[in-house]
Amino acid sequence: MAAPAEALNNAHKPASGDTPNYAAGKATVELRGVHKGFGHDEEREEIVEDLSLTITAGQLTALVGPSGCGKSTIVNLVAGYERPDKGEILIDGRKVSGASQDRMVVFQESALFPWLTTRQNITFGPRLRGDMPHDEIESEANRLLARVGLTEFRDKYPTQLSGGMQRRAELARAMMNRPRLMIMDEPFRGLDAMTRKLMQIFFLRLFEENRRTNLFVTSEIEEAILLADRIVILSNRPTKVARIVDVTLPRPRDFHMLSSREGFDYKREALAILHKEAQKSFSATGKDFADAFTKRYGKTT
Ligand SMILES: Nc1ncnc2c1ncn2[C@@H]1O[C@H](COP(=O)(O)OP(=O)(O)O)[C@@H](O)[C@H]1O
Ligand SMILES: [Mg+2]
After folding, report:
1. Ligand 1 centroid to 296 CA: how many Å?
2. pTM of the predicted model as reported, rounded to 2 decimal places
3. Is the torsion defined by CA of 145, 150, 154, 160 positive or negative?
4. pLDDT tens digits along 33-74
C-alpha cells in the first residue's frame, strides 16, 4: 500500500469542474414527531420521543449523542428497517415504508462478500440489477477504486485487505449505487487513530465531490465538526434534539480547521451540551460518569 502520507495527498486532490447544484438528485429527509420504543408493558422503554428533524439535500448531517441514546434506532428508522410507533419519516415528501436501494447504509461491521474480489464487491449492486451499462460500470468502478486508493487491490479478496481498506471498499461499493441518501452508522469506529484520519480524508473528498445527502452517526465530536454541515446533538433517552449546530467551516475541509478558533468554538459548544446530557443521565445512577467525561474531554463549562 502507498505510505499513509502519500495516500493522504492523493485523496486530497480537490474535486474539479463547475460548481454543481448540490441539491439536484439528492434526497431531503424529514422526521416529523417520530416516536419509537421497545418492549411491552412494564418492560417497555421509549427510546425516541417526538423527534423532528430535517436533513437537507446535499448536506452532511451528523448525529451525535451519548452511547445508547438511540442513534442506531434512528438509522434503522430512516433506512426503513424499522417503523416509527408514531409520527412519520418522509423522503422527498414520500413516506418511508421499507428499505430501498436509493438509501445506502454503511455500518461499522464489514459487509463485503468474502468470496468476491474488491472490484467484484464494488460492482455487485449494478451488475445484479443490470441497471447500468457495462462500460459505465467499468469506468465508475475504476474511478471509485482510485478515489479510495484501492486500484492496486482491485483483485484481492476482503481477507487480504486491512480493516481500513475494507472500510474504503465498502464506501466505494455504497457510492457505486449512486444513492440519493447515504446513511453511515459510526463507520470508522474501532479503527486506529491514523487509519481513522485517513478514512476521514478519503470520505471527505468523496462527499465533497458529489455531496450526496448524508446522515452520519458518530460519537466523536471532532469527526462531526470536520465532516458535517450540521451537527444534531441528541439528548439522553427518550431521545430528542438537544441542539443543532450549523458548521460553516469552508470546503474543502481539512484537519487544520479543527484547531482554528472557529473549529475550537464548535467543539466547546458541542461538548458543553454533551456534558450536560451526560450529567443528567448519570446523576440518577450514582455513577460519576460526568467526572469520567471531564477526564476524557477536559472541562467544558
Ligand atoms: N430491536 C430492539 N429491541 C429492544 N431494544 C432495542 C432494540 N434496538 C435498540 N434497542 C434499545 O434502544 C436503546 C438505544 O439503542 P441504539 O439505538 O443502538 O443506541 P446508540 O446507537 O445511540 O448507541 C438501547 O437501550 C437498546 O438496548
Ligand atoms: Mg449505535
Report:
1. 24
2. 0.86
3. negative
4. 999 999 999 899 999 999 999 999 999 999 998 888 999 999
